Fold Odorant receptor.
Amino acid sequence: MYFDRYDVHKVSYVDYVCGWNQKIMKFMGIWPDERGFAYASSYKVLFPIGLMFLFISLPQTTNLYFIWGDFDLIVENLSVGNMTTTIAILKTATFWSNGRYMKLLLSRMEYDRKEATTEENVNKMMRIADISRKITAGSIIMCNILVITYVILRTLLLPYTGRSLYYRGYFPYDTRTFPNFELTLIAQITAAIYTANNYTAVDTFMTMLMLHVCGQISCLRKTLTRLCSENNNNFRIDLRRIVEKYDMLNKYAETIEDRFNGILLIQMLGCTVQLCVQWYQAISALVDDDQGLLIVRLFFFAVYTTYVMLHIYLYCYVGQKLFSEGTKMAYAAYDCSWYNLSPNEARYLTIIMCRAQISSRITAGKFCTFNHQLFGSILKTSMGYLSVLYAMKTKDVH
């Protein structure tokens, strides 16, 4: 059923599995194409980075100096614009600077698709491709709904706040006069769209790469299980191919880990803080006397919190799946008919079993591994900070 939507002779596997990711990344200037001084695509990324930095990140970071001491303004500064945009800039720059490695990984992905000959392996790859496409489409829709909702919310608040920017910050000019105010708003809206789509595109792209690795290890595990049949006269040759493929897949995952573990640490810490301040703002909206836009504000907080948690969980899920798929290689070696082998050939399987115990991982700056346990720890930490903030808020109200 998957071939109704995909024809290997008309479109490459990478083009199919990337889908909207490829279109958005090309629009943002971070798709891993050939780069050089003669390529205009090499400089396209400077425009979104410049907008995000000059109209959201830098003004809001500078404004922290002037609002220091006003806890509510600091929370507003960190909750949506400043921290999210700064992380998006760092992710964009990191991804763009590692374009050569990403291109190699995509080439390897295309090779894996051409190498898959059995219907079982092809169907598995296409199922993973469809899952990746659905994750990307859902995340892109959600992030753009967030931007639209935030713009609507801030626009509805303009009669109460006056000529206040969507992202309040310090600018070296008067933002309350015409046309400075209108042009700055347009720039901030454009920067917010770039921020949301860059943030989402990088995360879903990384998820797609890791799901591909997990799928390939799963296919390789089944091949290893069927290796030790009695009529297999090419055991050593087939085993060597399996070992080489498994080693390549581990290097594939290690490349992603080495290139992005630093920015993943920043994202994990930033998202933990964002969850706290977002819930604080939700509590503030509930206990505030002015309930005029309560439903709209709570809707935005709910969608935004879901969006942040979803992206954290994506990394935790693929990190857990990568580790479990790697360790299952040891069970596959044990489950195969090793008793049909000679003692020397059976020893080869013990080496594979030992190697599989050291499975690849995705970490946050080498400090912790992304898995379900880490996701639970982030939620627990966020709820702990939330209880402190709630106590502070209720104390101020009373």
The radius of gyration is 25 Å.
